[in-house]
Write a structure and sequence with these properties.
Among the domains are: about 175-320 and about 430-515, no CATH class; about 325-430, no CATH class. Helix 1 crosses helix 2 and helix 11 (about 320-335) packs antiparallel against helix 15 (about 400-415). The protein has helices at about 1-10, 15-50, 60, 70, 85, 95-100, 180-190, 195-205, 210-235, 290-295, 320-335, 340, 345-365, 370-395, 400-415, 430-445, 455-470, 475-490, 495-500, 505-510, and strands at about 150-155, 160-165, 240-250, 260-270, 280-285, 300-305, 315-320, 450. It starts with a helix and ends in a 6-residue tail after the last helix. With about 525 residues, the chain is α/β, with parallel strands linked by helices. The radius of gyration is 32 Å and the shape is elongated.
């Protein structure tokens, strides 16, 4: 049959050309079907599936019936494990005392009236023989009107007047104390509670605070706190390792843009080996020049995802994200039929990546120098092996297929991911920046948009300070109440910025959330 077809094709050149075009068309359609099937699978997983990228079929599970497993994993010279090593201690249950240790306490005593401390039967005075105590939790949300009075004195001899001036409020001429402002700010930036919901909640306890009033308070508070934000930015840019990421934001009243246009909030985070600082910056677009402008005074390593806009940043060495690379293969992996996953190329790629992550985890507790040496000896050879494997697979993969695109992405970005090997402080992925942008994304789902660019900029300042507090395990309510009060009652020349930053040693000691009251 095939010989007859070959004979016909030789005798009819036009027919041969037609069949060639038809075969190319079939190949293109098959690639389109594969791409659409992959896209549909990815969308379904995004909407209905789990967000975890954990693969249930681990290497150990795949080797469950591997008869050579014992021989492959033997080490007859290894020391026998001890009972202490193999018997895992059960984590002690948290006691009530430990759960309550950070709470402020007050004592209520239920005692008999003096008239009842005499026995009604025999008229003998009662003697205390013991007591019974119970512990309860009480939470009361209420508004308190505080009457502040400054008493004036007069000298009867010289007629001079003397009084203690009232302390300044954070917002001159206002009614809000620093504690109230702190509550509004933290509810919005840490608890993702929109201002209109806060307004309704305050009405329930007798305060008629409109959404506009709360919005004004946030913007005016951010103006007071901008001094701290600028110092935080100066300190962050003075480091030599930064993580960066960005996310969309909708601003309704933005000059020259439609209300449904996308604006962006960028985040910049310090390394795990420096002071914990996270900064947010609002911009009207995603252009790389925004990152370039923000980081113009920064020199060093910049952890980023695959967005090419960061290529515009000068004087930096980009360290791209292994997690993003892994995600490309994971999306292919979960789109495959289950019976084809274990022996697929995507599974092999993920195994390489998982091995690299496993070695990186082993290095976490080492000193910086020791971690650098560990990377060179253990991780670098495996990354080179993975790179060579990718280069080989690129030659045989269809570029337009989902798998081909994952291979091409990996080939392009693995060299800059391998910059992670250059320093013991560098990380394998950009998850720190992604975690930092997540609270903003969660908040955005609740309040959807900012009304004006001023509101977006204020949000950037307030988010920066509150999230930096949380990174340092600082109580954001107490810190903001303290610092707003401090700034309102000190001239700029008197302010000691280094002493009031949310990562200052004394601040961490005084406002630590784990500190006993």
């Amino acid at each position: 049959m095939n010989k007859n077809i070959d004979k016909l094709l030789k005798e009819n050149p036009d027919l041969a050309d037609y069949f060639s075009k038809l075969n190319n068309k079939i190949d293109n359609l098959e690639q389109q079907v594969e791409a659409l099937t992959f896209t549909l699978s990815k969308m379904n997983r995004h909407i209905f599936g789990t967000s975890s990228e954990k693969i249930n079929s681990t290497e150990e599970e795949r080797n469950l019936f591997n008869l050579n497993e014992a021989e492959a994993n033997q080490n007859l010279n290894a020391a026998e494990p001890t009972i202490k090593k193999v018997v895992k201690k059960r984590k002690a249950k948290t006691t009530k005392a430990e759960s309550f240790k950070n709470l402020e306490s007050r004592e209520i005593i239920y005692d008999l009236d003096e008239s009842d401390k005499t026995c009604h039967e025999c008229d003998t005075s009662l003697v205390e023989v013991g007591s019974k105590t119970r512990e309860t939790i009480e939470v009361i949300k209420k508004a308190v009107k505080v009457m502040e009075k400054s008493i004036t004195y007069k000298c009867p001899k010289c007629n001079s007047f003397h009084k203690l001036a009232l302390p300044n409020l954070p917002i001159p001429g206002g009614i809000a104390t620093s504690s109230l402002l702190a509550q509004v700010i933290v509810d919005k930036t840490a608890n993702a509670l929109p201002l209109y919901r806060q307004s309704e909640d305050y009405k329930r306890i007798g305060l008629n605070l409109s959404r506009q009033t709360l919005s004004n308070w946030m913007i005016k508070s951010s103006l007071q706190l901008e001094l701290i934000f600028n110092k935080m930015r100066e300190d962050l840019l003075d480091k030599d390792i930064i993580h960066a990421d960005e996310s969309t934001l909708q601003v309704l009243k933005e000059s020259g843009k439609k209300a449904n246009s996308k604006s962006y909030m960028w985040t910049y985070v310090s390394s795990n080996y420096d002071d914990n600082i996270v900064l947010y910056e609002y911009t009207s677009n995603r252009a790389g020049k925004n990152a370039k402008a923000f980081l113009q005074d920064f020199k060093g390593y910049l952890h980023v995802d695959g967005y090419t806009g960061y290529n515009q940043v000068e004087n930096v060495t980009l360290v791209h994200c292994m997690a993003h690379l892994r995600r490309k293969f994971y999306d292919i992996y979960v789109s495959l039929p289950e019976d084809k996953r274990a022996n697929s190329n995507t599974s092999e790629a993920i195994d390489y990546i998982n091995q690299i992550y496993s070695l990186d985890k082993e290095s976490r507790d080492l000193s910086i120098n020791e971690r650098y040496e560990y990377k060179q000896v253990h991780i670098k050879p495996l990354m080179i092996k993975f790179r060579d494997w990718l280069n080989g697979k690129q030659l045989t993969s269809a570029p337009q297929s989902g798998y081909g695109k994952a291979i091409n992405y990996a080939v392009n970005y693995l060299p800059t991911i391998m910059n992670y090997l250059n320093d013991g402080r560098l990380e394998l992925d950009n998850n720190k920046a992604e975690r930092a942008i997540k609270p903003f994304i969660i908040g955005r789902k609740n309040w959807l948009f900012s009304n004006t660019p001023n509101g977006a900029r204020s949000s950037a300042i307030l988010y920066s300070i509150v999230q930096t507090c949380l990174l340092n395990k600082i109580n954001p309510y107490k810190y903001l109440a303290y610092v707003l009060d401090y700034l309102a009652n000190h001239n700029i020349s008197q302010i000691k910025l280094n002493d009031i930053l949310p990562y200052s040693k004394n601040i961490i000691e005084d406002f630590n959330m784990n500190k006993e009251q």
